[in-house]
Every structure is written in structure tokens, then in C-alpha cells.
Specification:
two-stranded parallel ribbon, Thiocyanate hydrolase subunit gamma, alpha/beta, EC 3.5.5.8, about 35% helix, about 10% strand, about 240 residues
Amino acid sequence: MSEHDHDHARTVKPMVDEITDFEVLEIALRELCIEKGLFTAEQHRHLTEYAEQIGPTPAARLVAKAWLDPEFKALALNDPIAACKQVGVDWLEPTGFGTPSDFVAFKILEDTPTVHHVICCALCSCYPRPILGNSPEWYRTPNYRRRIVRWPRQVLSEFGLELPEGVEVRVEDSNQKHRFMVMPMRPEGTEGWSEDQLVEIITRDCLIGVALPKPGVTANVITRTRPANNPINSSGAAS
């Protein structure tokens, strides 16, 4: 076999078959920013690693503390950034001045027996990453983003969440300037529980508003879903 021949049967398939337009844009913009001196490659690596390790546990602890401590609950509802710091989350990290997409107005939405909140970003995928981590994939899809504001009860039922008719559903739409997180109600059957026990049942989906905390349910997975009745097709219209 000459040096120009190839054994195609032995060719290893590349790990990435293709690169998307968005990935090309991200690479070009990142390299241009580094070239212009807006930040260094090391600073970019540091921020990326920081973002990847964020998760929803601090948010769950914030809610658990609020359930147990009325004074902390008042702080969380009136000055949520200060409350975040008490559970180890500083919205200015890791750069010292935050990022354009994260350092914004932040509000915690308290559920009541008559009002249930759910968050979305109808136009893109704005999300309170410093306190909740990276958003789940379904949160960024058109089928969630566009439908939750039109048919909230139907979409919640597809997640397995059936709310009584007497409960008002309020959908809070995040945007460039505002981020939200839900403070669900403490469920019955948790009387006498410690803060650590409560943290275990406050999942990411509870903090978004598509699930309710329940004793014994601790996984951040949706266990029962059903297909959408009015899915959004590729053109953006409901089918």
C-alpha cells in the first residue's frame, strides 16, 4: 500500500461529524475578542470551567432555608442577591463584575395556595445560571418556550403536573434584564425535617416551576411525560 492509499475500513470516525453555524460564530467571536484584548484565553477557560460546575443545589438550599427561617425568607424575597450570597453564590463571580448575560435584576417568585409560578424565556433561553446552573435542553426548545406562555396548564400537564382549577398559573418571561426563580410551597409530610433533608426534594424542575417538591422525589428527572397536543413545528407555528 502506497503512502497515498487509505484503508477506509480502518478509518476512525471523527467524534464530531459537523460544526453548526452557531459554533462557527462562537469560535470567530471568541478569537476576535482575544485578539482585541477584551479578555485572554486563560480568562475564557476559567469562566467556562466555572459555568460548567454550577448546579441547582445552592438554589435548593436557599429555598430550604426560607422554609425554615422567616427572616431569611423575607430577605430572599426582598433582596435575592444578598440571599444568594448566604448560600455561597455571588453573581459577580468569577470575573468580579459578572457577565452581560448574568448580572441582571433577579427576582424569586413565591408560590402560594392560589398562585403557581413557572419561568421561561419566550424569545431565547435567558436563565438564572449563577444560582440554577446551566438550563436543561428542553427549556431552550421552541416547544417549551413558545407554548408555555400560550397553554401553560397543558404544558405543565405534559410534565406530569396537574394543578387544581382554582390555582392561577403565572408565567414569568425572562429577558435581557430580568431573571427569575420559583420558591415552591413546602409540601405536607416534611414537618420536622432538617434543612439537608428538604434540600434533597427541591429539584431543578421545582425551581423552574414545572414540578412540585414531594417527599421521596429527589431526582432532577421528569418521570412521567406525554406528547404535546399542540407542538411547534420547524416553521415556528403550532401544528
